[in-house]
Description:
There is one protein chain. By secondary structure, the protein is α/β, with parallel strands linked by helices. The chain contains 27 helices and 19 strands. It has 3 domains: about 5-195 and about 235-290, Thiamin diphosphate (ThDP)-binding fold, Pyr/PP domains (Rossmann fold, 3-Layer(aba) Sandwich); about 320-475, Rossmann fold, CATH 3.40.50; about 500-665, Rossmann fold. The relative contact order is 0.07.
Amino acid sequence: xxxxxxxxxxxxxxxxxxxxxxxxxxxxxxxxxxxxxxxxxxxxxxxxxxxxxxxxxxxxxxxxxxxxxxxxxxxxxxxxxxxxxxxxxxxxxxxxxxxxxxxxxxxxxxxxxxxxxxxxxxxxxxxxxxxxxxxxxxxxxxxxxxxxxxxxxxxxxxxxxxxxxxxxxxxxxxxxxxxxxxxxxxxxxxxxxxxxxxxxxxxxxxxxxxxxxxxxxxxxxxxxxxxxxxxxxxxxxxxxxxxxxxxxxxxxxxxxxxxxxxxxxxxxxxxxxxxxxxxxxxxxxxxxxxxxxxxxxxxxxxxxxxxxxxxxxxxxxxxxxxxxxxxxxxxxxxxxxxxxxxxxxxxxxxxxxxxxxxxxxxxxxxxxxxxxxxxxxxxxxxxxxxxxxxxxxxxxxxxxxxxxxxxxxxxxxxxxxxxxxxxxxxxxxxxxxxxxxxxxxxxxxxxxxxxxxxxxxxxxxxxxxxxxxxxxxxxxxxxxxxxxxxxxxxxxxxxxxxxxxxxxxxxxxxxxxxxxxxxxxxxxxxxxxxxxxxxxxxxxxxxxxxxxxxxxxxxxxxxxxxxxxxxxxxxxxxxxxxxxxxxxxxxxxxxxxxxxxxxxxxxxxxxxxxxxxxxxxxxxxxxxxxxxxxxxxxxxxxxxxxxxxxxxxxxxxxxxxxxxxxxxxxxxxxxxx
Length: 673
């Protein structure tokens, strides 16, 4: 049995002698390399916080003392030390989450996987403890130097420092990186602190020597100590934190467990807010990670831990790579096109653009709000900025998109990677809200490409718009095969024509509107329906906001409209289509197939889509059942044949065939115009 296996909780950890902690750290690193290589996950960040996490759980008494993680992808070691050592299905269905999870353990306080929020949580928890007289508790917030580039962190620090008598410990895990290297003025300041650590040694030496000096020694030492601020600024310019009112401890070697424990015990005794600055190394103990200058193995897929070769064959080209390559080509043709990202240059595909045009790309740190406003300024100054972020993170900049970009009609293109269901990263990373949230932004246009060719074309269309914001969104999965169009109606591509022509010459059964990569799913559903005698027209709107003006007239040639989108059913494309039909006086039932109003558990994307009913078979079954209900509502009776010869008697069209566990939820989300 390894030493790690004997640690089933923090009390077991506290019982270990100090001389065994290095052995435990080695066990943890070996476990992480082996386990994460098997499943994939966040490897580099967790290798860097082993000793820091050990020290935290030896000094503090979790869960009574609340230890908060920002961001939560560095909490694997915390899981191991709090009784969760089965990583066999990490980030998989039914397995451990890749982030803290209240459902897993009482030691997990916040399910935090969006950066820069932990200090606000800590401020609120510390206030609650003070107000309720819980003086025996401590609140400890662990935040990376990358997360400190986010504005919310500084808003919280401003409030934390204001209460001199409220104990709260901020641990800065300084590894010089978020995904890649941390950039900006704060990064420069922390770099200065890292390289000027002589002050405390100097002060300790002065105390020892001067206090032994007769008569003048003690008064001279007290004068020196009273002048501490000036001397400290000379030896290590820490004013950034101390001027806020935070007691500063550090910098500490974050891989020296004894040193970290000593610093944390000092911080625990202090009666006000304390910042403990720990220097760590992302990817510590694993040479391939340390040699990866891009992101130190921030996230890895399943791989051989010796060779680092993927265990599973690649699923094909990624959407991100297609975007990145097209951006380089556009950059060569358009010197006015510039790019911004929020600490994710490589993950969003801008590495090539940055290499080709280094003066035309800015990594603003974990500051999506600033990225949006800065882009508005760039657009007003005569450039066309492309802001590339994950879809889930654009939520953080909604007000800036609305009030700074859209209100001022700025030509800014937002490119949303990992839109829709992302899967293994869990509820916080699903990009399932953008199509609903952005519907209310006046003038904004949204493109949802269905394949690589459409991504290239629609990205170019987006950067050609100079007087309004545009959005291009695509998922995390690999790019599939091209989906050809058989015609065009208005600005919409017709992917399948019910009567052999883009616009049916007579009434057809279903107009199936597919959003982005749901085109393939929609076509498969249409094929299943054709086997039951139900004729479908399948269209890809390409630009899903605003609704194409030609859609209501095309819809009027059908008995039912169905919209399939990989975004929330509430307020998304289906709702917009429904409203457009009502506004045009087209009286048709509309069925929307999308993501339910829920936080989706981590699993593979395909598993999540199956769980929520976004499969061809379930969509076809529900459409068949909806046609039966529509006929009944018009008084035709369940056996009446529709224009496509449908009788509605196929049992596959009934609720039993589409999964009774979801039928009620689905029907409650549907609307009849």
